[in-house]
């Protein structure tokens, strides 16, 4: 057995020296990572601070209780009640359509497709959909739903456009979470004679639920801020329309767009407050999803 020693004859001193060098390198890399993280936070915090400071000017009950009906661009007052209702309805419809389709697609790709041709085609299609610009999704719904089928502008048409954007994001997030579930859990369930569908429903999905909900909320956050497809499918209105299948409907992104293009201070203040409300809604939805996922997390995880 060879003993590692230094010129001074102390066994193990070289190992100590190497270990010290590695610790220094490790600490140096940690400092670089923290520095990069801090640098990345600077623009993010700057944007957030700007939105909060400017949005607080009109963050009052009037903003949440009234619409822009009969309110001119230069007039004080007015609010985004119609836009908030429209955004919540459109995102809810989008989620009800997108999440089941996307989750079932991810389950098929992970649990059933294997190396089959159909699985490869679906996976390729999802990749293509991921790169579709949002305005193309809006143009597709405009051409098919409104011009070909003859339907009018509506919140449902906007939800269809957002569905095209949301499905691939949820599919990829759910697929990655399902792949992280250990195969030992599946094999243990199969060994007990449990059918595959029950294994997926009661073993695989609960294990991957937390990560899947996180992916779904990221997709919701993305589509909730889209403007271009909504301008093409729901148009814009200043009045309250709580019926998502009949007539033009407001939304927070289009409300911000409409107010920001008017160069007077009252409109600019309303646009900033609309942006702040949009951020707060996304934050509250994420917190609610985290809470639900934490409550339904399997024991021991």
UniProtKB/TrEMBL annotation:
- CDD domains for this protein: TM_PBP2
**Where's the ABC transmembrane type-1 domain?**
84-289
Give TM segment ranges: 31-52, 91-110, 122-147, 153-171, 200-221, 271-293
Which keywords describe this protein according to UniProt? Answer: Cell membrane, Membrane, Phosphate transport, Transmembrane, Transmembrane helix, Transport
The domain of life is Bacteria
GO MF term (any one): phosphate transmembrane transporter activity
Where in the cell? Answer: Cell membrane
Bilayer topology term: Multi-pass membrane protein
- Any one Gene Ontology BP term: phosphate ion transmembrane transport
Pfam families assigned: BPD_transp_1
The record's function comment reads: Part of the binding-protein-dependent transport system for phosphate; probably responsible for the translocation of the substrate across the membrane.
**What protein family does this chain belong to?**
Belongs to the binding-protein-dependent transport system permease family. CysTW subfamily.
Return the NCBIfam families for the record: 3a0107s02c
Specify the protein name. Phosphate transport system permease protein PstA
